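We treat protein structure as text, and this decision shapes the records that our systems exchange. The remainder of this section carries one protein's record, kept here as part of the documentation:
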Amino acid sequence: MSTATTVLSPRLTGATTARVLRQLRHDHRTIAMMVLLPSLLLGLLYLLWKDVPSLPGQPSTFDRVGLTMLGIFPFVVMFLVTSIAMLRERTSGTLERLLTTPLSRLDLLLGYGAAFGLAAAAQAVVTVTVATTVYDLQIAGSVWLVVLIAVANAVLGVALGLLASAFARSEFQAVQFMPVIVLPQFFLCGLLVPREQMAGWLQAISDVLPLTYAVEALQEVGRSAAETGTMWTDVGIVAGAAVLALALAAATLRRRTS
C-alpha cells in the first residue's frame, strides 16, 4: 500500500479543490448556511439598530457594528462548516483512502482551503452587496476592501476549522471547539469594548488573536476613504495566521478517528 507523499502537487491540490466544490454544489443546506445566513443575521442587527439615533458626526450603531460583523460572521460560519466537513471525511474513511494515494496532507488541506475560500468569496460578495443596498450600510472606504477582508477572515475560519477537526472525535466535539477558539476572539477583538479600555493582561491576549486585526482592518475601512498602512498590516497578519493554522493542521491531521 502506498503512502501519502509530503511534496506539494498543484495538480492534486486542484483536484481536491474541484472534488470539494462538487460536494458543496450538491449540499444545498451548507450552501444556504454559507451564502445566506450572514445576510440574514446582519438583517436582524439592522432591525435592532436602524432607529437608534447616533451622535452628530458619528456613524450609526448599525454602521459601526454591522461593518465589523461582515468579517466576524464569515469567520464563524466557515469555522463550523469546515471543521464538521473535515471530520466527516475522517470518520467515513474517505480521508484514510485519500492519504493512501500520492495526495499529501498539505495538498488535501490547501485544496479544502481553496474550495472554501472560493465559497467565502461568493459569501462576502453577497453579504456586502446586501448590506450596502438593502440595509444601507455606510462605508467610508472601498467596498472591495471590505470584501477582501471578509474573504481573508473566512479563510482564517477555514484554517482554524481544519485545525480544530484534527482534535475532535465527533461532530459534537467539533462544535464544542467554537466556544474555545471563536468566542474569546469575539469578546476581545475590540467590538464590545475598545481595546485601549481593557485591562493590560486582556489587551495582551487580544494582541495575539487574529480576529483583533480583522476587526481593526474593517474599522480602518469604515473611517477612512483611502487605504491605510494599518489596514494592510492587519490583513497581512490575518493571512499569516491562516497560513500558520493550515501548517499546524497539516502536521496534526489524523487519517481516521480512533
User: Anything to note?
Assistant: The chain has one domain: 10-49+58-252. The two ends are 20 Å apart (CA to CA).
